[in-house]
Amino acid sequence: MSEQKKNPLNHISGKRLIKNLVGVSVLSLSVLTGVTGCRGNERISNNDTAKVPQAVSMKLISVKTSVSIPEGSGQSKVLKKSKEETVKKTDKKADKKKADQLNREQSDLLVLVNKDHPLSEDYDVKMKTLDHSDKVAAEVIIQDLQDMLADGTGEGLRFCIASAYRSAERQQEILDQDIKKLTDKGMTEEEAYIQATRTVMPAGYSEHETGLAVDIVALSNQLLDDSQENTPETQWLHDNCDQYGFILRYPKEKTEITGIDYESWHYRYVGKEAAAYMKKHDLTFEEYLEEKV
Ligand SMILES: [Zn+2]
């Protein structure tokens, strides 16, 4: 069966493009990324400020480089030999640098963080603030994330990013709050810990600390509970997120593998190729990584 390549940009033409540009730039972007009526379930209090999206532009440069003039073509013959050699040498060095960078990005994209795999202390990915939002995420996911939400918004949906990157301190704070709520209700510390960590991980064990995970809900229903999966926004994301490189990280039928209760709102960026593969073969991230080994 041939895999149809679904690039969202292919569909944007004429009327749609104008609609997207107007809708996104003026109103929708503020709606979809959490300014108007989108509470979000937390505030980001770290200092990961916006940086130039180098990671993204590096990829574009690399694509261009890989389709550069083939050797022996008419155009390359025009170059004088000495100049050609210098260019080749420089290109080779630059290509190697870009390839190394891409490899690093690729392996970072597939970093596994779960109950058994804490985030490595030397994990170091650039974070960036989303447009029109106080939320921060790994720079490398921003473009696809914003494209996904813009396309959904173009179809009349209204999203809210409830949570994106969290620092380890913030992660622990959220868990502590959840445990306190449960002990206030009469549970022992141990019971409360077990119950709370069914959905919230302690510091060092949450995907949110990678900057590659986002919780997205409908603007009209911002509850992180079972009702979320019935919203048109969540249904659309479940159907389409793979096209933008995201997977639904904790599916309903696979809680034993992921170790986390079903979360219809938690998406993890893995890149388009990996996301498409996991969707096609109905694999969780854990299963995918195991298959790859
Ligand atoms: Zn989440």
Order of helices and strands: HHHHHEEHEHHEHEHEHH
- Bound heterogens, unique: zinc ion
Number of discrete helical segments:
12
Low-confidence stretches: 1-31, 43-81
Task: Tell how many strands the DSSP assignment holds.
Answer: 6
Biggest sheet features = 4 strands, antiparallel
The helix content is 40-55%
Percent of residues in beta strands: 5-15%
The rough form would be described as: globular
Spatial sequence of strands, sheet with the most strands: 3-4-6-5
Mean pLDDT: 77
N- and C-termini, Cα separation? 25 Å
Question: How does this structure look, described?
Answer:
With 293 residues, the chain is of the alpha+beta class. Helix content is 48%, strand content 10%. The protein has helices at residues 8-11, 14-32, 54-66, 74-78, 81-109, 139-154, 168-184, 189-196, 232-240, 255-258, 272-280, 285-292; strands at 127-129, 136-138, 159-163, 213-218, 246-250, 263-269. Strands 3-4-6-5 form a 4-stranded antiparallel β-sheet. Strands 1-2 form a two-stranded antiparallel ribbon. α2 (14-32) crosses α6, α3 crosses α5 (81-109) and α7 (168-184) crosses α8 (189-196). The longest helix is centred in the N-terminal third of the chain and has 29 residues, at 81-109. The protein is globular. Zinc ion is lined by residues 163, 208, 213, 215, 266.
